[in-house]
Amino acid sequence: MGSHRTALVAVVRQELAEARGTARAVLAAAESARNEAQRRKKLIREAYATCLAQLTEAREAARQDILHRSTTEATALSRKVAQLAALSAPGAAGTAWRYWTPAEPDRVARPGMLRIGTVAYELGEERTRLPALIPFLDHAHLNVLGARPDADGVLSGVLLRALGTTRPGDVHVSIYDPENLGGTLAGFAPLGNAGLLRLISPGGLGAALDELVEHICRVNESVLTAGYASLAELTAATPGPRPEPWRTVVLLLDARSAAELSDSQRAQLERIVRTGVACGVHLMVRGLELAPHPTVERVSAHDGIAACDTTGDLEVTLDSPPPADRIAGFCRATAERLLAGPPPARLADLEPSTFWAESSAHSLTAPLGDSTDGSTVPVVLGDSTPHALIGGPAGSGKTNVLYAWIGSLAARYGPGELALYLLGPSFAQVTPGPRDPSWLPQVRLAGINADGDREFVLALLRHLGEELRTRAQAAKRHEASTLAGLRAADPHGHWPRIVAVLDDVPLSADAEALPLVKDLARRGHTQGIHLIVAARDGWDIDGFPLRIALPKAQGVLAEGNLAAEVIPRFHAATDNGVIRVPDASDRTAWRSLQRKLWLLRDENCDAPRLFDGEVVPRLPDVYRPSGRLPDDVGSSPGAVLGERIDVAARPARLRLGRMPGRNLAVLGTRTDEACDVLAAAALSLAAQGPARFSIFCLDPDAEQAAARLMAELPQAVTSDLGVVPEPGNVPHYLIGYGLDTAGRAQRERLRALLADGPEQRMHVLGWWRSTAHLHDDLAAHLGAWVALDVRGTDLSPLYPQPGGPEWHPRRRRALFFDRSVHRTPEVIIPYEVNSDHT
Ligand SMILES: Nc1ncnc2c1ncn2[C@@H]1O[C@H](COP(=O)(O)OP(=O)(O)OP(=O)(O)O)[C@@H](O)[C@H]1O
């Protein structure tokens, strides 16, 4: 029993121990599960916190980015809006009263918007303002409602800006102010002095409205007849002053006076609202609500704040009214200017709406200036007025008239229609210069500083004579009798009208030039060649039917026409009336026009040739030996001696063929020029092919020049004329300096060379200081000479006619005579050869 119990106890114990063990295990598992759950919970918490932080960060970054972008875009947008506002209301239309000055626009400018205040808005941290603009002239009537002082301020501001952005006289104002009888806008009263302002009496409103409606009918009729939809369109298409001024009618009403308006007055007002803007009639109404219409701009103003149709919901802070003294000062000045007449046209006002759009087939028509009413006055160079004479005393503005005319012509007729030859002291600026590379594309030739070079004037006249002959022959071939006919028969030919301008060129006493001018005047116009001559008083010539007289000019206009006596400064009188000439000599204005035309030119258009009598031409590089020379030299190489005084600036050449007398004498005491002539001759001969040179210098003053020439010439040797060089196939030139002092033996050899050399291709090019040492035995073999400071009579031994040629020596000019070519000698400009290398 005891053992049974013991066994039972043991079993129970055993089971209890097992149960305890199981319970412990379950507890341990439960604990570890709890730990795991807690760990997970912690992890989740941490992840949640990280996620939250990241999200916050991302949200902040996105917010900053959006903020930055919106600020940048808003700044750019606001800048653009500000630019747009400045463009829509430039200058006097938009500047604050503190800085305000009136600005007269170009004739072609159209009215823009006008500022009445500002609109504020937030830009980032800042508060910014933009001008609040409303339309007026050509666009809208203005209907201001609200508090009286605010409304009056808006009205006076808009009226002042409208007047200050248009030309004096272009806006007429009528004011109906039944309570204050004009006192409300008293500052504008001075406009009345020039007829620009009218007060409508309290009983006169009906008549005034009737008259406005009639005016609208009349304007409408002429606008529609001309094929336009509005006065603004007609004005834009019509050159000159406005065909009709704008009419601005200010009605200052209050509740009582508004209630007193009769039905017919209200009906007339409605008509004006509907039709006025297209006819330049604008209402400015306070105290009465106009019937809604697209052309009515409504402004409601209270306590310095306004809302208007153009700015919509935006609140406008109104500008304070313009200062009364500013209004009065402006109106006084405008009235005075108007009474003094409109200002003269500017050079830019002579420009056509399209450059180079005209054909010169029948004439050249261009305005020279405007008349006192502001309309431009065209001047015609054509069949009945082919040539013009501009006369007036010194400083009266002749050159200025020429510039105005040239500019006006050049703006209308392109280089295919017009070619200009200009001779006068001021024409350098139409050619390219170091400071301004532009030129006038129609100019073929400009001559300046030619006072001492009548040869240049003659060359130009002869060139025109040549052109006349060429055209006459072409016309004959095509059986045409006028330029228009020739151009029609030969449409691919190049037949521009030619205008030659001679400004202050001494012609009257020139027995050679005058017949050439007369001949051109008589026959030029049929071939499209026109002359414009500007001269001081005392020059008169037949064949110049178009007369332009400057103040105090004598004998220019028809007898009995005293206009020149009475016209003021900068005016010009013609037989048809008085012209106010713009300031065309103003460099900035001229350059601006020239630059525009220059940019229009064709790429093949050559720059004009400039002849400047004070500039010494350099020996062109093509006449210097450099690079590969031709193997063969022609049978009569040409020695280049200087520049010919002609239209094309060609070199004067002396042909040195195998014929007796083909030698050259350079005569005169001006060492530099003599050395330059010899150097140019020798270098240009060397540039044409194989040649030999012997340099023979007897004058110490010329040694340096002789040495320089030696250095530049290939195959040159010095010589003392001890032996006469052997003839050969290659031409041989003996360049002799200061041959006056040659000894007897040298002279003998020289004579032999002069006499027999040329036929064996040996030629002497020699310099003698005077002709005294050129005895007949030498002179007989000198077929050509270049004379510097030698009197004409001293040249008689070398000249076929007794007494020698007529020659008045002057610096850097030489008389060139080649017996086998010239009938009379020609004046040349010796090239400068050595200025750049010493
Ligand atoms: N319409 C004008 N408006 C303004 N200035 C002008 C006008 N016409 C001429 N002038 C000025 O008057 C001055 C003299 O003009 P210009 O040289 O044209 O006279 P001119 O008759 O050719 O003189 P001269 O006979 O001495 O050559 C110049 O300074 C020129 O700028």
From TrEMBL:
PROSITE patterns per record: FTSK
A GO term for molecular function: ATP binding
InterPro entries the UniProt entry points to: FtsK/SpoIIIE/SftA (IPR050206), FtsK_dom (IPR002543), P-loop_NTPase (IPR027417)
Pfam families given in the database record: FtsK_SpoIIIE (PF01580)
Binding positions for ATP per the UniProt entry: G392, P393, A394, G395, S396, G397, K398, T399
GO biological processes: cell division
FtsK domain location: 374-577
Record keywords, A-Z: ATP-binding, Cell cycle, Cell division, Nucleotide-binding
PANTHER family documented for this protein: DNA TRANSLOCASE FTSK, SPORULATION PROTEIN RELATED
Protein name: Cell division protein FtsK
